[in-house]
Amino acid sequence: MHYNPHQRLASRSMAFILAGGRGSRLKELTDLRAKPAVYFGGKMRIIDFALSNAYNSGIRKLAVATQYKSHSLIRHLQRGWNFFRAERNEYLDILPASQMVSEDKWYAGTADAVTQNIAIIDSYDIEYMIILAGDHVYKMDYEVMLREHAESGADVTVGCLTVPRKEASAFGVMAIDKERRITDFLEKPADPPAMPGAPDKALASMGIYVFRWAFLRELLTRDACDSKSSHDFGNDLIPEIVRSGKAMAHLFEESCVTSGDGEVIYWRDVGTLDAYHTASIALTEFTPELDIYDTSWPIWSYGEITPPAKFIHDEDGRRGSAISSMVSGNCIISGTEVRESLLFTGVRTHSYAELFQVVAMPGSVVNRHAKLSKVILDANVEIPSGLVIGEDPEEDAKWFRVSEGGVTLVTRRMIDRWRAGHG
């Protein structure tokens, strides 16, 4: 098809979001839900960022491939992303691993998740396919990357983060030439290759890939017949294109959406308890690096209808207050001091309790005289009266999950165990 520089390529594209992963580094936080369905930012889920980026970029054909414990994710998509209208040529398909290829075959890898849905994708008559991970937090205009891909004539364009070279060993790293053609793809190298002209920088893969659908379709069909392949984009398909085709790197800083001058280029993998807690609490800062208040690039989500947050009691030691905090609708802060904390919808806190750097997920309850510091409360957890968490790591570790960075995760099952031990 002829490339028209004046037409938005997003209108001829589909976004395929890979959302099947557990995210085991988040420990018990993903016992009941996949990582993309983990709550983030007071009202959202992690997957809302990739979906919102696609929607805001003008892409109206989206698919989400799910696998691990997908009920909470599917329910969120049905409630919060149900505004697509087929009569306007808009679609959001939820694609669980439904054994379409054979009755004993779940999604074997990220590429296989697309392969098993080729017939569905074909029905949308698209020209470009953008593959996205559903578990990263960032704002990006995919149209910029799509246009770069079309203009370069590449077989694949890989979204890349510029990172300090000494930190790049944690990523898949791209070696590129001066034209940004990828010459090598190295998975977590001990000595990452530097960017041309920037010896202290390296390019890390974001897990974002753009293809022409006709090219990708043929590649997937061929890969499906290869018994030695793990059927994965990062392990198999991208390295193969680097070796025998044309792979180009796209720099995230050229398509990152910021809302002011001098803003940092923001991208986070919130895949550990420490990273998740740090990114969450950072939203309470005076000027956070991630602007979720920017109405020109909104993060869409399930818009739950709730009453306003309420703060009650005003006496020394029993004052409902929240300082440098984010408090969602249907929260009641009753005689509690809340500092540098992020409270999701429907949280209840009671008199004389203290919260410092707490991420409290929907429906959690903190009873009287409890004292929490650097804590993540899973949804619907009830903290018993007088319980202190965050001051004695050794004691906390007997009952709860304490991370390397000193963050304590508390789930309902852990509280049940604590209650049984303190009966």
From TrEMBL:
* Family matches, as PROSITE patterns: ADP_GLC_PYROPHOSPH_1 (PS00808), ADP_GLC_PYROPHOSPH_2 (PS00809)
The protein's matches in SUPFAM superfamilies, at most eight in alphabetical order, are given as: Nucleotide-diphospho-sugar transferases (SSF53448), Trimeric LpxA-like enzymes (SSF51161)
Protein name per UniProt: Glucose-1-phosphate adenylyltransferase
Q: In which pathway does it act?
A: Glycan biosynthesis; glycogen biosynthesis
Q: Where is the Glucose-1-phosphate adenylyltransferase/Bifunctional protein GlmU-like C-terminal hexapeptide domain?
A: 307-410
List ligand-binding residues for alpha-D-glucose 1-phosphate: Y107, G172, E187, K188, S205
- Which residues are tagged with the site Could play a key role in the communication between the regulatory and the substrate sites? Q67, W106
**Might you give the EC number(s) for this enzyme?**
2.7.7.27
Natural source organism: Thioclava kandeliae
Keywords from UniProt, A to Z, are: ATP-binding, Carbohydrate metabolism, Glycogen biosynthesis, Glycogen metabolism, Nucleotide-binding, Nucleotidyltransferase, Transferase
